[in-house]
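Team,

Forwarding the record for the chain on the shared tracking sheet. I've put the sequence and predicted structure together so nobody has to dig through attachments.
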Amino acid sequence: MKGNVKITIVIAVRNMPETLGRAIESVLKQTYPYKELIVMDGASTDDTVDVIRKYEDQLTYWVSEPDRGPSNAISKALPHASGELIGFLGADDWYEPYALELVAAAYQESHADLSYGNMMTRDGTVSELKDLKKFSPDKLFMEGTQWIGAVCAFAKKELLEANYKKKNDVLLTDYLFFLRLYAEGRKFAHIGDDRHITNFSIGGRTTSGIYRAIRDTEVVRKQFLEEYPHMRDKYVKYTERMEKAYAMGIADYYRKVLSKEQYREYVKELPCSNEDCILFGSGKQGKDCARLMKIFNIRIECFVDNNSSKWGKEEEGIPIKSPEILKEAVGKCVVVTPSWDYEEQIMEQLHTMGIKNTCSIINYSDIAIQVYRALGEEMLDDAWNKGLIS
């Protein structure tokens, strides 16, 4: 491949003047010169267009008109893009200054259909690096245990154009696009650098509507299998695991819809109902699990966590301690709560520590699937339609 690859960045926005300028400037200030920026505004009703006009002489194209959401905005941007690679940036996210330079260098070497780099998720003052070097397409698409953020991925323009000629009336269009590339045997490649290239805002407007996104994963997978029936044989091996991952995703929403009495009426008891418990993992899944167990008045002695910076602190009013205390926790129930990424690692850790011989061990995924099968989705969909959950 000769010459320097040109990269087009598309920002789709609506009513986000507070953060849009930061996103735009993070593209314009890239150390890589062969780039262009397109901004697609979905007919904002606030000061967003004023922000865009401040930069319009540095934009390849921009427009403010009604659209059907980010996916539709991106599809309308493609005819105006001249880059060989296309990247997408949320209006409340931003690139590191060296991002496109790293992406271009990696692409010159790999010519991958989808190039991607690491991402820093930011939730207020809390930051977490998403290291995607060990990303496996199988784990993302067949197990649902890993993911690539669209804001740290860069795809060949011709593949995106082909994608948008297909049916895309789902919320998670990027996930469906990645699935299609996977089914077609396209090449995925990490840029090979430990640094993060993108900062992704958790809790920002681009991450609102999480319940609908979780539900939409099932819609996407069904459409994916209709389009690529040859993937069914491979997919079927992971059906149970993906159902559990889905159940963990929506489990905490039931708490927001049902009273404690209603909850206990539908779900008679949990697998750990008659035991004193220690929760391994104090992240989101651990907190979800703790809230659920409190509904059933299950005694939680503490969290344990491998992250020593959390020791001595609390989550949900429960102290966080070192896993070393498990060596003295004879007869307790250890509930393993992290996401699939770490469950196998923690189970091996418990085995090495000899805990399997002294405690009962339950996975939160088994608790979540029991709750999901008892309660279903209808009540959550109804609550979402009424605006009671988001």
